[in-house]
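Recap from last week: sequence in, structure out.
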Amino acid sequence: MRGLIATLGLFSLAFAGPDAVLVVRDQVLEQGRVVEYVGTQRYPVQNEAELELLVGQLNRPARPARFVFDPHKGWIAVQKTGYRLDSKAVRLAYRAALEVGRREFVLPVTLEPPRPSVHDLWQRGILELVGEGRTGFAGSPPSRIHNIRLSSSKFDGVQIPPGTVFSFNRTLGPVTAAAGYQRAWVIRGNQTVWDVGGGVCQVSTTLFRAAYFAGLPIVERYPHSYQVGYYKPTGLDATVALTRDLRFRNDTPGHLLIQTSVQGNDLIFRLFGSKDREVTWQGPVVLWRTPPLPTRYIYDATLPLGYRRQIDFAAEGAWVRVYRTVRLQTGAVRQDVLESRYKAWGAVYLVGTRP
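Predicted structure tokens:
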């Protein structure tokens, strides 16, 4: 019986195909330098049908370099080199190994380099985290969240060359229904209206905070008409419109890379580049405040009787200042004051009157 089992084992080995070996070579940007990692991945293959399945699994497009947080190394940039495997070439390599009895063969693969690669980032001075902005949108209607996700995606991966002034509006492009935006609550002058693009100002506010905390010179910025609950702490918001832009200058030694993400109910903007300064800020300091306006009701005959929904919230009027100090490695020190004046605002309710 033991002899029969041993014979069957030898029979199985004799007809098992050689292992396919993929040589993995990729680079990581960590602690300001590019490190190359080389390794192998082994795949047992019994026949050519399994080989075809393996080719389909291993083919992949290149993924551009992106910073991720490593608990041991901090922020590192990783990439994925693309693999293109030709089924005919792989099959020939498999048969050649099978004919001479080799136990493995190296998969012939064409490498597709990512763009940008971690080496590209390194060459442009994009080495580390230099600034982060974060805001929350808990309680937002689905259309507003959709607009936040859509508009923030326009900035993900954008690079800002040194010495240039970045424009939010120019990068964002048109905010229209044709561009995919939905209707949500938008501040228009002295009222809040239901219009296309509500939520875009949350994106400008979050990017503004990343640039502000990175110590970049703010060229153009406008506060909202009133204090918005989404943007605490007050005094660190930035609204945009057709005639109002958010602009800041990249005065760092290298390029800046914008990365955006949504984590739960938080929108996050991060700027990566070459850190050549330390930034501290104080505030917000409220110089004066005024009470909210009386509650206002908007009656809508298209909504059923008994319908009642709060569409705006009471907010105090205020004059707010935030103080920033930027200490450059050159020894230069810059100080500036960010000033915001907010109107008093009253709660607003939408009330249905249709019988």
